[in-house]
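Problem: given the chain below (375 residues), write out its structure.
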Amino acid sequence: MLEIEQEEETSTQLISYIAHAAPATRRPATCREPYLRPEIGFTPHWFHEALGIDFGEKWHINPVYRADSIVAMAGEIAARFGSRCEIGVMQSSDNPVDLLTGTFGALLVPELYGVASWYQEADWPWSEHGPHYSDEMVDALEPPDLDENVFWNDFMEQLDWIEKQTGQIAGFMNWQGVVNTSYRLRGESLFTDMIVAPDRVELLFDCISQTMIEGIQRLYSRQEESGVKLTHITISNCMVNMLSPKHYQKFVLPYDLRMAEAFTMIGVHNCAWNANPYLDHYAEIPKVAYIDMGIESNLVKAKALFPKARRAIMYTPMDIANKDYDDLATDLKYIAQNYGPCDLVCADIDTGTPDKRVHEIYELCEKLSEEYSTH
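Solution.
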């Protein structure tokens, strides 16, 4: 794994990465990725049913408990799929260097703003139902002082233990993006504010983006002290389909641009939505090293707009579970023809999907990679 870390420092692309029971995130590429690279991930429910792991609050605040569960999850993956399927590559049972990814799910930033998480036995944590911030609270909002933030300081203490345990602090927190986090603070009022109180939206997005940049830079500084150098950011626009392209351009793009400029490269997570309405605006973002979208997007246009980025398809867990083999093969061939080289992100696989399907995905990706890498 140290070899991977060294190669990642000079990478100019990001690839999808799913740690065991963690939401998908991104990590630096090695520049040796196959033409169609599968990234497979399973839900906490899948691991809960298989191993009885409790993903409640203890899993997120106690790195000792989390480390033990990661070893157990890695063992289950190895037993079912063997070494041929590279699942949770930084969390092998014999050398789990990543004890960080997945901590607090996607709720680190809301917690910094005082939005309590509702921890789940067999799922990622949920934000307590809001809205938590009134009009007046947002109008007076300032970014939290991380030096005085109890939640942040408790998180920093986890990093100290991880470094002592593994010798370094590898892994990636899920910082989300300004819309996703603001919705957890503001609820549906976020969208009406865009019409009746746009200044309020801009203030909220300004605070959230500042917190993301400061938090990531502080985390990276601490990781670099342990020998892990990271310089990228990834943003999650999971709720972008709730906005018109004009509203994305007006309210969100300025902050995506701000965050891109603060780091050496950026990954743009678009979920499995049709990205067509937003592609031209995404193309305005500099240093895009990764972008993902759903299969219904205009893949040819996306490839032309982002020729230097590592592209990815978010292949839905419903399609993974329900499509027959021929339909799966047709989809993957279409992706390779029109979008490759790229990642095939198969996240959130749950208990209804047979292990055989995972093997089929790997076999098809290997076959297509061999075919298209020689073109």
